[in-house]
Amino acid sequence: MSENGYGLAPDGRPKGNKVWVDGCFDMVHFGHANQIRQSKQYGRYLIVGVHTDKEISLNKGPPVFTETERYAMVRAIRWVDEVVEGAPYTTTVETLDKHDCDFCLHGNDITLDAEGHDTYAEVKNEGRYRETLRTQGVSTSDLVGRMLLLTKTHHERDDHLSDEHSERARTLSTSEDTASPYTRVSRFVATSRTILEFASGRTPKPSDRIVYVCGAFDLFHYGHLRFLEEARKLGDYLICGILGDSTVNSYKGGNHPIMSLHERVLTVLAYRPVDEVVIGAPYMVSDEMIDRFNISLVVVGCEVPHHEHDCPDAFEAAKRRGIYREVESGSNLTTEGIIERIIKNRMEYEVRNRKKAKKEAAALEALERLQGDTTKAIKITAEAAERAEPTRKWV
Ligand code: CTP
Ligand code: C5P
């Protein structure tokens, strides 16, 4: 136990009482959730500040999810104690003091404002900054890139991409030649430990009413969250079946799903309503499945028309047994809707990704001069960002 009574954090230093994390949390993904999970190990109480759409547009380019969606989604991540809406883009000592936080936590990467200033410079200089490990292989820019490209490069190596396609992929940070180590092609590797760290660990009591839902849960969004919250209300324990990549691809076609099975599993596990997931759930919710998991109710959302294909009814067994229920999620957002937002604003997102990659390349050059120490404040000039070439290979 440390002298302040909260014990030691993973870095061996005393934990804080209240600690602060902030960010955009656009297209909230498991990299964000993992940052929040790690941060919770540094304090008794975790406050997450989320920036407004206006601040993000000014400093980084337009977000894909609205602030209302981002606030609700961060609030539902299981390790978050409180969300501060509209947190300033630059983190100051004044903000930490206002919310009674001992220090702030950020992944070990660099965040710059529109002028190229490190947004954590002040708290770094005042010793109120500590770091978590950034999750390799996922970023909002990469997800946006995957959608803009609509290729399968995020699932499998495609050596036959045309030169033009390759170049577009490179600039959008989704190919093997990467723009920066922060926003590169998804090479996320799931381990049993990562899954364990994300899992609720709760087992159902014999008297628990177990609810089962299933789906692709690709590009997890506000509609998914609302659906899971409604489903959870109908019982005591929620199991979420995540359909395998080939199952989803067989009814959606194209390059769907955008996120791989393990990415989708971790994303869903991070949310409070979910107690357990089935990794690569079968399309059919069979009698065997219902008995094996002791399922009392199979719940499906009715906002979104289910899969239009010739497969047999996936929920036939549940309907026959009288345990099938439809719920209103109250949101008409879909994975396709998210993709449409991006396609509609294609130009803006391409510019955003390119600018971000250039700025990151300049930040990395500056970081090399600091021997890679991300806990020190850096500043880059507009000229340095313009000069920087995000073409270097990062392996
Ligand atoms: N983060 C992380 N691992 C990732 C992505 C983000 O640890 N793969 C962390 C960031 O370091 C930061 C927090 O999540 O502490 C919030 O990140 P955000 O402000 O949304 O910005 P980005 O780092 O730019 O996220 P992304 O690259 O996905 O746009
Ligand atoms: O489309 P997907 O398979 O990801 O959907 C998973 C579940 O979430 C389905 O039951 C779907 O009806 C539900 N959903 C919802 N409201 C939304 C989006 C999805 O109820 N806006």
UniProtKB/TrEMBL annotation:
Instruction: Give positions of region: Disordered.
Output: 156-178
What keywords tag this UniProt record?
Answer: Lipid biosynthesis, Lipid metabolism, Nucleotidyltransferase, Phospholipid biosynthesis, Phospholipid metabolism, Transferase
* Similarity-based family: Belongs to the cytidylyltransferase family.
**Where in the sequence does UniProt note compositional bias of the Basic and acidic residues kind?**
156-170
The species is Mesorhabditis belari
- Tell me if Lipid metabolism is a UniProt keyword of this record: yes
* Cytidyltransferase-like domain: residues covered: 21-144, 212-304
Name-wise, this protein is ethanolamine-phosphate cytidylyltransferase
NCBIfam families named among the record's database cross-references? cyt_tran_rel (TIGR00125)
Which Gene3D superfamilies does its entry note? Answer: HUPs
Group of enzyme by EC? transferase
Report the pathway entry: Phospholipid metabolism; phosphatidylethanolamine biosynthesis; phosphatidylethanolamine from ethanolamine: step 2/3; Lipid metabolism
